[in-house]
Amino acid sequence: FGVYNADRMFSDISATWNGVLEDMSDVKELVPELFYLPEVLTNENSIDFGTTQLGGKLDTVKLPAWAESPVDFVHQHRMALESEYVSANLHEWIDLIFGYKQQGKEAIAANNVFFYITYEGTVDIDKIFDPVQQHATQDQIAYFGQTPSQLLTIPHLKKKPLSEVLHLQAN
Question: Where is the signal peptide (predicted)?
Fold first, then answer.
């Protein structure tokens, strides 16, 4: 399985949450498995992921206090994702990720700004002639990732409440 750097491994949901809130360079992605696959939080095969610099041995992901088990965590996580609150506010997320708050003054106001080379079209790798700089730029993109393509330049419409939609269908 190779050598693991235990201090860089995902091992604690609360610590990860706090990390992304406190450190602008600590960026994480909520992978779909966190909403349907509790096994992603357990070390089913007893793999030795190593020991942290503080002496902690990595094993199953440490859950927040509100989750009784990996199954409970995934269930509550999914219920939150499918909640009316999230549904009613999804347009805000769309504006940040794909819309008008992804770049420019709206992104700055929304505290939604990332390192410049993560934005589509800001760097042309083929025009970097220094091989060291080209490799460094490619590594930065590969390890940090890129922001999605900006699809919208105006605010996304808010979802209509179900009662409003049903009312429209009845007429």
Answer: none
Look up residue 94 and give its two tokens.
């769309």
Q: Cα separation of 3 and 48, whole Å?
A: 9
Q: What is the pTM of this model?
A: 0.70
Q: Which of 87, 90, 91 is nearest to 154 (CA)?
A: 91
The two structure tokens encoding residue 78: 């999914």
Q: Where are the alpha helices (DSSP H) in the chain?
A: 13-22, 70-81, 84-97, 104-109, 131-144, 162-170
pLDDT one-digit tens code per residue, 78-133 = 999 999 899 899 999 999 999 999 999 999 999 888 888 888 888 888 999 999 99
Please give the full DSSP string across 110-126, using - where no structure is assigned.
TT----GGGSTTS--GG
Number of residues in the chain = 171
For tokens 């940040």, the residue is: 96
**Backbone phi, then psi, for 82, in 5-degree steps?**
-95, 10
